[in-house]
Specification:
The protein is mostly helical and 230 residues long. Helices cover 70% and strands 0% of the residues. It folds into two domains: 5-75, Tetracycline Repressor, domain 2 (Orthogonal Bundle), CATH 1.10.357; 100-228. Helix 9 (165-186) packs antiparallel against helix 10. The model is unreliable at 1-6 (pLDDT under 50).
Length: 230
């Protein structure tokens, strides 16, 4: 899955033009800029002044949308979470329905999430650390979508018995979003990063096939796992 380029903040000229037409677009520009700062420099570097400059709006406009720095942090994490959910699981259709987990090819879903996490380590770091620091992590939009997806598989004819969907979701998401930080620390070249992403895909497939799914229903996945090697 490609990096989320549509999350990048707009240029100052585009942001100013949007502000004249649409306050909602201004809010989006501010949130995109805040995401960029959080991803690159962390929470301590975030300020409404810095974010306003990056978004191409004046500080007063930023304060009209967010009263405090903490308001901006919370709104940004929620914004990132919604986009993670839509990117990884698919956006709701016109009726508000979202794709069913049992209808998605297993390895395609694994590959999409691993590749997304490796290509967007800043987003994963924002999501993981900020949500864990929140008062009720289980209410996060992305976590709820992930847990629901896990529960749908567990409750279907394809799932193994006795799965604790919440515990499994926490374990899996921790791995998905901590691994890219390990990759960035230990892999300097694009080729090395791809090799480490492939290791993660293979291991998640193995865990899924022999812990989440009824392996006998997926002989093609066992064949793929054997082809991917140890």
């Amino acid at each position: 899955m490609a990096a989320v380029n549509n999350m990048e903040p707009a240029s100052p000229e585009r942001a100013k033009a949007r502000r004249r037409r649409d306050p909602a677009a201004t809010r989006e520009a501010i949130l995109a800029a805040a995401m960029t700062v959080l991803a690159s420099d962390g929470r301590d570097a975030l300020s409404l002044t810095k974010v306003a400059q990056l978004a191409g709006v004046n500080r007063g406009t930023a304060y009209q949308h967010f009263n405090t720095r903490e308001d901006l942090v919370k709104a940004t994490v929620a914004w990132v979470s919604e986009r993670l959910a839509d990117t990884v699981f698919g956006a709701p259709d016109d009726s508000g329905l979202v794709p069913d987990a049992t209808q998605r090819p297993v390895y395609e879903a694994i590959t999409g999430l691993v590749d997304f996490a490796v290509e967007n380590p800043g987003l994963g770091r924002i999501w993981l650390f900020e949500v864990l620091a929140s008062e009720d992590p289980g209410e996060d939009v992305f976590f709820k979508r992930f847990e629901r997806s896990t529960r749908e598989l567990a409750d279907s004819e394809f799932g193994a018995e006795g799965i604790d969907a919440e515990a499994l979701s926490v374990m899996m998401l921790g791995g998905y979003f901590l691994w890219p930080l390990w990759v960035r620390a230990g892999a300097r070249t694009k080729k090395e990063r791809e090799a480490m992403a492939q290791r993660m895909r293979r291991e998640v497939l193995r865990l899924s096939l022999h812990g989440i799914l009824r392996a006998e229903r997926f002989p093609h996945l066992q064949k793929l796992l054997d082809e991917l090697g140890p």
